[in-house]
Structure formats: C-alpha cells, structure tokens
Amino acid sequence: MKNKDKLIPFARLKADLMKDAEFRREYEKLEPEFQLARALIDARVKKKMTQAEIARKAGTKQPVISRLEGAVGSPSLSLIKRIAQALDARLIFRLEPR
To answer: pLDDT tens-digit profile of 14-50?
Structure first.
C-alpha cells in the first residue's frame, strides 16, 4: 500500500474533538443516553441474555433493545422499568450537580 492509512487511538481522537466547544456541548448532551446504553449492555452480558430474551420478558421487540444499546432514542420511563425488571435489576436514578 502506498498511502497506508494511520490509525488514531479513540482516546486521542476524542481528546482532540473535545477541544471544540460546540462538539463538547453536543457530546455532553448525549451522556445520559450513553450511560443508559452502557448500563443495559453490562447488565445483559452479566445475565448472559440476548436482546431478544430481554425484549420478550419486557414486552417489547428486539430492535427496541438494540436501539437502546446503540444510544438511539429516548425511551419512556415505563419501558426502562420493564427492562430493569426483565433483567432482575434495580433501577436507580441519580442527579448530580455539575
């Protein structure tokens, strides 16, 4: 390969992008969705369940779980509660000052 592409570590790319105030604001706006996605994936993997299994137990469809794990959309509180119940998990909300 003549023009070999350089790979940039994610941490370095993120640090560079976070220097831009507009990017940082938008990134921070999405933090709750990312936190929910991480928590859902972690709980599902720990329980060794598939997205389809969680969806069935929560009374929804697998693509809904996939979208949540992809941090897409704003789920209702009732859906989050049903998913927590399907995972036999306790739901905790926390508000922290900035």
So the answer is: 999 999 999 999 988 888 899 999 999 999 999 999 9
Q: Which helix (H) or strand (E) holds 50?
A: none
CA distance 69 to 41: 6
Whether the Cβ atoms of residue 27 and residue 56 lie closer than 8 Å to each other = no
- What single-letter amino acid sits at 83? I
Asked if residue 14 belongs to a domain, the reply is no
Whether pTM > 0.90 for this model: the answer is no
Q: Looking at the 3D structure of the chain, how many domains does it have?
A: 1
Domain with residue 76: its CATH number is: 1.10.260.40
